[in-house]
Every structure is written in structure tokens, then in C-alpha cells.
Amino acid sequence: MPRDGNELANGAGGALETKSSLPFLTDTQRAALDAALAGKQRRAGSESTSSRLLRLGSGTEELRATRSSGGKAAHADPPRSKSEQLHDRHRARSGKGSGKAKKGGAGGKYTWEGAGGALMAGDDLEVDPNDPNYDPDEDEPRRAPVALHAGHSEEVAAFKQAADVILQEYFSSGDAGETGTALQELQQSGLHHLFVKRLVARAMDRHTREREMASVLLSSLYSQVLAPEAVARGLLEAVAAVEDLRLDVPDSPDVVATFVSRAIVDEILPPSFVEGIPADSAGAAEVRRKCGVLLKGRHAAERMQRCWGAGAGLRLAETRAAVASMLKEYVASADKAEAERCLRELAVPFFHHEVVKQALLLAMEAPASQGPLLALLAHMADSGLVSGSQMHKGFQRVADGLADTCLDNPAARERFIAITHQAEAGGWLDEGVCGELAAPPASADSAADASAHSVQAFKAASLEAVREYFASSDAAEVARRLEELAEPGLQNILVKLAVQLAMDRRGRERELTSVLLAGLVPAPLTRDQLALGFTRLLASVEDMALDIPDAAHQLSLFLGRVIVDEALPPSFLTSVLANLRNDSLGVSVVQATGVALSARHAAERMLACWHSAQTTEELRDSMQALLEEYEASGDVGEAARCLRELGVPSYHHELVRRTLAAAFAAPKHAPALCALLAALASSGQITQTQMRTGFNRVCALLDDYALDYPAACTQFEEFQAAGEHEGWLQPLADGAGA
């Protein structure tokens, strides 16, 4: 019998208290997975990644450069398979570095170099009095002249070359997560400032879209991959090089100043950074002056968020929405030139298959618009705007999802066949590429097709159940539907569909899916069927990556979560490798999951993995909504519950900052807002560290707040004094400024 909804919903989260801070995988499990992955790599043969074996739990393990960058090549002619496209992506970053730890342990995360610096010689270095640079006043044993390592210049040159490859792929794919992984794999954290500098320089020579992408990448990698010192140093070096950059980009001082100002607004640089820019050259002085102008006045933050233009965003959902809007406008106006202009402005040639897919779906749904839409596709193909490979990929995506489309549009198959034949006859689609996929199925009435009919019916019912679950969060209803279907051998289909649907949605749906899978096991969903569902997902992750750029990363989180929730045993990671190709992306997903589960606090991180999937903007919006609701209701308990559901204790300082800012803006709510902070701190929900960090952030911006709210300084001092007196705010250390 299905369990009740509360039991299902709490099935995953109730284990939190039982998880320790130790790695989730035991030494035996790590060793077994290590051996299985090593064997998989040996069998991969000639692939360049086979020499980089996984060493789980060693502290120096790395993810091999076999993670897909989304498989979105700008063009590929003639059309090739999805696996071949992904394989080329894997090879693009192969062979970087030896995989060994750097001498002296240098290059670790958030470090500049090894002890004494990578450029420092040993203590036994002798001073040559005959050296023309010899200074007898500095002839001390501990002040030996700096000597370069023999291969340091080659190491820097290799890093710059690798950084250029990574940036080129990022500007093509827009996948910040993959870019961060590729940068970490270089194991050169001491050179990350060069990556920041090259990112700015490469973006300057491109369009506003790439400049926005560069700003977003800095914000995404900040603190997680790029140390704060590396970001500051890299941008400072970009400022210093502005005169050289001016040769290629005449307005380079303005562009660099915009990058710096945007970084300050994104809170990856302190406001004091501008004061630290040395005015030792005309270009640097101009950058400093321009930053002061950009950051001055009201609404400066809002202006800088749109500094690269309204159309410079790169999120997948926004691009899809822009494509849909373009097609809708074209259907109404039939203006091909305007549609072509809009598509060029999007600057996403690697994503043109989405235009083809949406146009075909719209044509099948509304036959009246079929003629104009096909004429548009033909025009874009003839002009070369949409390449042959992108056209092929768009048709193939529609063909792959034709069974699902037919559930909503029974005539979709016949219409798609007619469109395919028309495109082939017009010469803008290669003949036969979709003929096999578009072939109608045999009659479902015959006994021979009874099994296929059953599969389609189960798939349709599963889709409906999952979509209803996302709307209602009623896990018990899904369990009841599974029992009613009475198809225990097909339950893996529901697993695969649920994960695929959740991947294309937000953190809420992903969390709901993880809770659902854990709650359905062991009945009505068997562990064997859950394992089969994830096996099928791992085998098809290359295809999913074409539609969802970070599919591999998301799948590793889903897999790690079901293991932490004890719905699947850790041994699944080892056993599933036998069902995957040696060079497949699925092997890398298994490897990434093993690395994640071998880290300290792995269980806690996995249980909160989908809360961290929210973007910074989404978290800020959620916290702002929390405060607005609290100001209206005064319900501290509800505010605490909402904050707890966000699951981001490391970002609670943002709520503190916003609470103080709200008090400045509405003094009548100040006592209630102060009481909220006191309650959250007293209960331990906001730690003293987060509370003090939030106050320090406001203190650093107090002069700016005072421009809009003259009483801000006085209010801040009152809040701080009250917090320190009542014990919910840690006093500043002696000598520290307010």
C-alpha cells in the first residue's frame, strides 16, 4: 500500500540527523569504485583521458575533461551523430597537464603558490657578488634573489593556451559550470588571475552578449573556483594593461571600467577596489574616473546590472523565450527580414536547432501557420543563417519526441512526415535523415504490438502523473497511480521521465523529484527498477546534454542524492559501469558522483543540493519576498520557515543586509525588522558569523545608503548597539572600525 504523503515527502530529509561529517562512501566502496573506473579507463584504449585515473578520497582527485560542454557546436558539416559531437568536445580539452600534484604542493584551492612562492628558489641559493644586479645591502641569507623554475615560463604559456580554449568553448556553449570544472582540472590556482585577465580581454573584442557572459562567469566562479584574490588581481592587471588593449579596442578604458563596476555591484569586488587603482598611467586614471561615474548616484546598481544591454543575457530559459517570441511575431507579421535580424542579435548559432524545433512544433500545432514557418526555415537555410547540421538536429529533436507530441496532438505524426518530405523536396533538408524516425508505428490493435501499446500507455500515464505531482507535491497520488497501472516491469520509465522533466525546470521540481524517488522505494517502486531507470539515464546523458547543457552535472546530483537517501546502494556506482561504453559521458557522471560522495559532509551537501541550484538572483528575490511578507504579517515563525526552506545557511548574510536596508527605507518597520534579526539569531538559524558579515557589508556601503536615506548611519549604529547589547550580534574586535 502506498504510504501517506507526509511519509513520502519526509522520506529523504529525515535521514539528515543520522549523517556524519565523514565521507559518505567507505574506504572499501571507494577502493571498489576506483578499481572499476581504472579498468574502464584502461579499456578506453587510445583515448587521451585514460591516463588520468580517479583517486577517490586522496584530496588531489580531479574530474577528467570528458564532461560535455553541452554538445553545441557552432556548425558541423556534414551532419554527424550526437555521440560524435560530444566526443569531439571531450577531445578538445584532453591532455592538459600530467595529472600529478605540483611540486611543493603548490596550486591548491585558494592559494597563490607553494611555500615561499612558486618563483622562489631554495634556501641554499648562493649570491653571486659579480652579478651586475648585486646589491651588498641586500646580501642577507633570507633575501636570496628570486630564481625562476626552469619550466615556469612554459607552464604559464601552456596555461594561457588552455585558458583560451576554455574561454572559446564557454563563449560557444554558455555553460559556466563546465567552464569552472575545466579550469579546476588545470590545477593551476596560482595562475587564475591570468584567466580573469584573459576573460576580460577576450570579451572586450566581442559583442555585448559575450561581455555579459564574462561578467556572469566571474560571478558564478567567484569563491567556488576563483579565489577573491585572483579576481581582484586579474581585474587590476586588466586595468594596468588598458593602454595595450586600447590598440585593438579604442574604448578599452570604458569597457574595463564597466567590468570593474559590474564586479563591484555583483559583490565580487569591494567598493574600495576603485580607490586602490593606481593612477600611474592615463588609461588607468581614466578607468578609475569612469568607475566613479558609473557607481555614483541613485539606482547605480540597477544600471550596472543592465550595463551590457537588455539583450545580453544568456540563460537557456531566456533564449528559448526569445525564440518563441520571435516566431510568434513572425507568424503575425510574416516579416522574414525582422525574424532574421532578431535571430542574429541573439548570437547563439550553436542553439539554432531550438528555432527549428519550435518552428516545427508550432507548424504542427497550427496548420494555418505551417506555410509561413516552413518558408522562414527554408529562407534561413538558403541564406546560411541556420546551418545544415543545426537544421538536421532540430528535425531530429522533434522526431525523437514525436511520441510525446502525439499525446497532445494526435495528427502530429502525419503532419511531421508531410513537413519532412516538403523540406527534402525543397533541398534545405538532407533526404532520408528523418525518414526512419518519422515512420508511423504499426497498428496497436494487433497482438504483436500489444507490448508497444502498453509501453506508450504507461509512458503517457507517467508523464501525466509527474506533471501533476510538480503542481500538487502529492507524492502519495503518484504512488497510487503506479499501483493502479500494475506494470512493475515498466516503472523505470517513470524514473527516467521524472528526472528528465525535472532537469529542465527549477530547483523546486528537482528537489520534489529526489524526494519522490526516495519515498516510492521499496514499494511501489522497486530498487531494481530505480537502478534500471538511472542506468538508462546514464546511457543517454549525451543526448540530454544537447537540450540541457548541464545535464551531466545535474544527473550526478540526482544519482548522489538517491544513494544518500538510501534508495540505491553505493555499490550501484561500481555495478552500473559494466552497462556503459568505456568512453561515454555516463562514466564521467559516475566518477563525479563518486568524488562528491567521498568528500566530507557529502550527505549534508547532497541533501541540500537542489537548494544550491537556485541562482543568486533567485535567492535574492526569495529573500526580498520573505521580507515583504514579514513586513505585512509580522509572523516571525513563517519568516523562519521560509528561510529554512531556502536551505542556504552560507548566504544568510544577504538576508541580514536586506533587512537593514529595508529598515533604512521604512523606519516605521525598523523595530519589527530588528526583532526578526534577533529572533533568527537567538534560535541559531542565522549564525553569529553570518550576522556579523551582513552588518559589515552594510557598514561598507553606509555612505551610499546615506545618500538615499539620510538617517541610515544613525539607524545602523542603533541596530548594532542593540544587537551587541542583547547578545545576538557579535561585538567588533578591539580596534575594528564600525
UniProtKB/TrEMBL annotation:
Pfam families: MA3. It comes from the Eukaryota. Residues 123-139 have a biased composition (Acidic residues). Residues 1-23, 36-142 are annotated as: Disordered. Residues 74-87 have a biased composition (Basic and acidic residues). Residues 88-103 have a biased composition (Basic residues). Residues 104-119 have a biased composition (Gly residues). Residues 158-279, 318-439, 457-578, 618-738 form the MI domain. GO terms for biological process: negative regulation of DNA-templated transcription. This is MI domain-containing protein.
